[in-house]
Amino acid sequence: MNWLSKLTPPGMSKIFSKRDTPDNLWVKCPISDEMVFHKDLEAGLFVTPAGHHMRIGPAWRFQFTFDADYTELDTPEVPKDPLKFKDDKPYTSRIAGARKKTGRDDAMAIAVGEIGGVETVVLVQNFAFMGGSLGMAAGESFIRAAEEAIKRRAPLVVFTAAGGARMQEGALSLMQMPRTTIAVEMLKEERLPYVVVLTDPTTGGVTASYAMLGDVHLAEPGALIGFAGPRVIEQTIREKLPEGFQRSEYLLEKGMVDKVVHRRDIPATLSRMLRVMLKRPGSSAPAALTPPAADHVPADPASGDGGSH
Hints:
With 309 residues, this protein is α/β, with parallel strands linked by helices. The chain has a single domain, classed as Alpha-Beta Complex (2-enoyl-CoA Hydratase, Chain A, domain 1), CATH 3.90.226.10. It contains 12 helices and 9 strands. Helix 6 packs parallel to helix 8. The two termini are 32 Å apart.
């Protein structure tokens, strides 16, 4: 206790107690170091004035993509801890923490709505949930989304964001790579469009499976896309990688990505593509961009947690 505290009459400190303020009122742009007010960030679709595309969760993604209303579908239930895995904490504790942090059951969310007047099934991978890691729940959700698209005779659009497979599920996680590949083949057999929108970051087993099997691959600007990360590659080959290596623009030049699209232009781009691929008429009206109640301001991608404040 300092000398000033001793002079303060009893009860006065409670009257002038420090008010709690949100810790996400201002967000620092990793490109320019500019501090951006959260309301301005929301109005700009979570793209900073310098052009950095922040990571966003499913609620924002659905709101920014669909024309207006949409319906979220339940994701399948899977065993919580099939391997009884434990490192510095039990796997069940990690799942519980991720669910509390995101308000989601796992890393995938499914919704159905219209994009430019075309009914579409949209699957969003949430990096805030354990790095968007591909486990049994994510694999089952992907298959559910593909089956729903087939049932509705609708295209499937997947927004990817992942650090790879979920190590706590071992081989059961790796099995989701061929399972999701089979689901993609089911869509192709039904001649339904499958479009992938690559967001930051899309790496590991996700890149090695469904993320690179789309009929068309779009990418947000500056997204990290690859199997192994740049640092791992540099340490392996012991050479300095080219500037912008594994970023959207670099992969566009190399033919791995079909088009790099700003977040505000994704709905209109998807609308045009889907109408052409399905040979259906439709409106090119932009999606409603009213911020939803869910999902907080996402963390700075450079921080590595990828979650919400």
